[in-house]
Amino acid sequence: MKKILEYLLFPTVTINSKTLSKEVSTKTIVITGASYGIGEELSLLFSNYKVHLVLIARTKEKLEEVAKKVIQNGSKCTIITADLYQETEVEKTIQSLKELPNGIDIFISNAGKSITRSLEKSLYRYHDFTRTNALNYLAPVQLLLAITPVLEKNKGKIINVSAINVLLLPAPKWAAYQASKTAFDQWFRTNLLEWKHMGIKGKTIYLPLVRTKMILPNENYTNYPAMLPQQAAIRIANLICSTKNHTSSWWSIFPRTGSFFGRYLWENVDFIHPKNNS
Question: Which Gene3D superfamilies does its entry note (predicted)?
């Protein structure tokens, strides 16, 4: 049943190689969270088009593995090892990005942290919120504030790899994750017109659950239908080539519509601790 659902929810999408080549060939593409999952798949996908990839992540050994494959595919690769939870590490990353000889053409904000925990279990875990906010919101803001002039010079593109959650009603146990992703989404959308005036295109992809390393700690996801990282990478590549400013799964209109009309019910019916009527 799960396989059938995945086939229906995440149908096969192909790439127009000629169009993608025109968009990315010889360009400098920066990808955060590049060592695993979606970031790794994006790196391998773009490496077939003679690009200069700048890969950012915490794990140096894994970045080096990805870089080796990129180079074998005929593209140039620069790795930046950084813990984007730390503001000082972000500052060092910014300095490295500003020193790139040809600037930046495409910046893909992909790094993120997922966490699900009830309010009751979060009462003494304020660090859950500071760490999630640091990576999902503050780090990409800090990076983009610094490199906007670089992107303006190259008339570049920014891709925000977001989650469908930010378009839906807030869900119990997702406070840290949903608040941080929504904050960055709002910040990003607020700047779209100003970036456009600078010649920079901002685009967002709202992804569903993706089967990456990030979701492994949550055993509940084992039987959930999920998109594969390769499928997500193809959709991001297609968004780069598209005239659209944002995209999401074909079925997202249904939960989004339900969220719009169902707020009263959602906020007034106790789904977590239903009353015992016996």
Answer: NAD(P)-binding Rossmann-like Domain
Kindly compute the dihedral angle of the four CA atoms of residues 245, 246, 247, 253, in this order, to the nearest 10 degrees.
-120
Give residue-wise pLDDT tens across range 75-132. 999 999 999 999 999 999 999 999 999 999 999 999 999 888 999 999 999 999 999 9
47 contacts 41 by C-beta, under 8 angstroms: no
> So where are the chain's domains?
2-268
Between the CA of residue 4 and those of 1, 7, 25, 183, 261, what are the distances in Å?
A: 5, 5, 36, 34, 29
Catalytic residues: 177
For the domain covering 2-268, report its CATH number: 3.40.50.720
Contacts 24+ apart (CB under 8 A), 96-101: 97/30, 97/54, 97/143, 97/146, 97/147, 97/150, 98/146, 98/147, 98/150, 100/28, 100/54, 100/150
The contacts of residue 143 (CB under 8 Å, 6+ apart) are 32, 90, 93, 94, 97, 107, 109
